[in-house]
Design brief:
It contains one helix and four strands; from the N terminus they run ββαββ. The protein is mainly β. The strands form two sheets. It has a two-stranded antiparallel ribbon with strand order 1-2. The two termini are 17 Å apart.
Length: 57
């Protein structure tokens, strides 16, 4: 994400839906290293606006 050194904007496939999430993992993972990996996601939180992107976590 522009102007956000620690954040990555991800599209996550939950099986029944796809969600866009913003995660603070950019210092630890390159975006191309995450493709196809399984992740843990807390999916019952309300949508939030973060760094000019609406994230539904």
């Amino acid at each position: 994400m522009p102007k956000a050194d620690k954040l990555l904007k991800l599209t996550v496939d939950l099986g029944s839906e796809q969600r866009t999430v913003v995660s603070g993992i950019a210092e630890h993972f390159a975006p191309e290293a995450i493709i196809g990996r399984q992740v843990t996601l807390v999916a019952n939180l309300a949508p939030a606006k973060c760094a000019a992107s609406k994230a539904r976590v």
